[in-house]
Design brief:
55% helix; alpha/beta; 237 residues; Glutaredoxin; globular; 7 strands; two-stranded parallel ribbon; 2 domains
């Protein structure tokens, strides 16, 4: 009888420890999950306009008058379709769209699209977005914007000043002039001006496109652009 009482007492002593251990088993995964969700809400979606767009985002339907502001463009000025892209060289969705859609789109509508690129650097989450945009504009000062633009999206290197200088060398820029341009305050003002203008249009994420003023948000597949462009060309809008 004495041994049984001791065993019972032992079980009573150990029970809180078992409960404590059980709670810890559930608490740690729950705490991890809560922390992950909090980080996603803060950094994955961010706030204000600091977002990258998922292709599933709902598309706006209001036609806007979008100014071109003399920004880099390719294609005839009198083309029936004008596409203005607000984009970020460090945005993974933007990189994906340019790698998977851009060339096919321009080839399919050869001579029918004027494509304009405007900067929308996500300052809070992409620290190299503004420097990359400035570097591209500096290449444009020497008449090679689109060559540099292509390397930034397709070159496969980490974005930093060494990469910009390497790309400048690859396309034959005058490195002295290029380096001076990178420090020119007017280039920073140009990029931030694009950002502020896009914000005034209601742009909230990258990439955002305006096809004759109608927005397409996200790295949408070629078919989405074909549908929108064909509708514009047919006059059914």
């Amino acid at each position: 009888m004495e041994e049984t009482q001791q065993s019972a007492a032992k079980r009573k002593v150990n029970r809180p420890e078992v409960i404590k251990f059980s709670l810890s088993v559930w608490y740690l995964p729950a705490a991890f999950l809560l922390g992950f969700l909090s980080a996603w809400l803060i950094w994955g979606r961010d706030s204000g306009v600091q977002n990258v767009a998922d292709p599933s985002d709902e598309q706006p339907t209001v036609r806007r008058e979008v100014q071109l502001d003399g920004d880099p463009s390719v294609g005839p000025e009198d083309a029936p379709i004008t596409i203005v892209e607000f984009s970020d060289f460090q945005c993974p969705f933007c990189v994906r769209w340019h790698n998977e859609v851009y060339d096919d789109l321009m080839a399919k509508y050869d001579g029918q699209i004027r494509f304009v690129y405007r900067d929308f650097p996500l300052y809070q989450i992409h620290p190299e977005a503004e420097p990359a945009a400035i570097a591209a504009n500096c290449a444009g000062e020497q008449g090679k914007y689109w060559e540099f633009h292509g390397l930034l999206f397709n070159g496969g290197k980490e974005l930093n000043v060494n990469t910009y200088n390497s790309y400048a060398t690859n396309i034959g820029l005058d490195l002295g002039s290029f380096s001076q341009c990178l420090q020119d305050e007017k280039q920073r003002v140009e990029v931030s001006g694009d950002y502020e203008y896009a914000t005034s249009l209601g742009v909230r994420s990258t990439p955002t496109f305006f096809i004759n003023g109608l927005a397409i948000v996200g790295a949408q597949p070629l078919e989405v652009f074909v549908q929108a462009i064909d509708k514009e060309l047919s006059g059914n809008n």
